[in-house]
Amino acid sequence: MKEKFDYAKAVEELEKIERLVQDPSTPLDKIDELLKRAAGLIADCRKYLRTIRESYEEDLRN
Description:
- By secondary structure, this protein is an all-alpha fold.
- Helix content is 81%, strand content 0%.
- Helix 1 (7-22) runs antiparallel to helix 2.
């Protein structure tokens, strides 16, 4: 069973990733890994927001 997407938690993780990427002590190979994780989180957030918007628009039509 897939767990429910937690938008706030995803944003929090993205903020953490941002701090790590901006930290000069973060190794380059780690930055690559962090950016891939960030891309996945961003895609998940967009999908979640799109679903919420579609649900809202559907409610307005009814």
